[in-house]
Specification:
- This protein has about 325 residues and is mainly alpha-helical.
- It has twelve helices and no strands.
- The chain is globular, with a radius of gyration of 22 Å.
- One of its GO terms (cellular component) is mitochondrial inner membrane.
- It is a multi-pass membrane protein.
Amino acid sequence: MTQQPVSLPAKLINGGVAGMVGVTCVFPIDLAKTRLQNQRSNHQVYRNMMDCLIKTVRSEGYFGMYRGAAVNLTLVTPEKAIKLAANDFFRHHLSRGEQKLSVFKEMLAGSGAGMCQVIITTPMEMLKIQLQDAGRLVAQRNVAVLPALRLGGARAVLSCSYSMGPPAPVRRVSALQITRELLRTHGIQGLYKGLGATLMRDIPFSVIYFPLFAHLNALGKPSGEESAPFYWSFAAGCTAGCMAAVAVSPCDVVKTRLQSLSKSASEEMYSGVMDCFSKIVRKEGPAALLKGAGCRALVIAPLFGIAQVVYFVGVGEFLLGQSPFTLYGP
């Protein structure tokens, strides 16, 4: 019996569900990654990922670890759906007349998927970073204030600038407020700040991830016609995601710095990708380009492992199979 081809709507549902499940599981680590990438060497607020998460919970509460999660959960559905469905679409069209895709064509399909997803990824990351980084900026100001207050006496307080005072709370700002302000001041291009850096990150990531996952997953297939077990797909997704994430980590640091609109007075401003890259290397050293690389690997590995399992389980096929409408392709 010939297996019925899966329609695009089913692929989109699978990608969307996969993205939501994955993001919910790993978002706190993603918040730590953003804050670690944005802090400068001369203003260390967090020592590592665990220190960042502990300080976040203490100062902002448990839900402080999920600042910006609503944006991700809203936009990750179309983002992951586009990414996974576009890769399948390009692989299908590039494989016409061939039983097996060459590595070059697999990389080509991956690059096409990476280019398609930035339509959603760039504004999603732009808004998420503003919300995630707000707590770091407040913590940085408080680190400068508290030592002076602890010294005691009027002399210590008077020696501070007039802007200093009791530790400031994290200012609550919504994604909608940020969006309105960006549209008012910069138009639609305001939401696409850092587009070049996002392309530099996402295209190489997809070029590495999708072919690597396909080959690792194929090793777990009992035979050519059968699918790999779900645990093998999970492990293949985790491995491929981890390796691709670390490989493009410098581009992710540059993208995060460019998309951070709120900066302290001592933090550098950047005019573009090359300016950001050169200033980071010159002022903080080459190692700064790998800030948050461990966190990013911990985010991407389970995210794509979960995504691939949900995708291959076929949630979309199940839902559409129960639908009274005929949404499957011929």
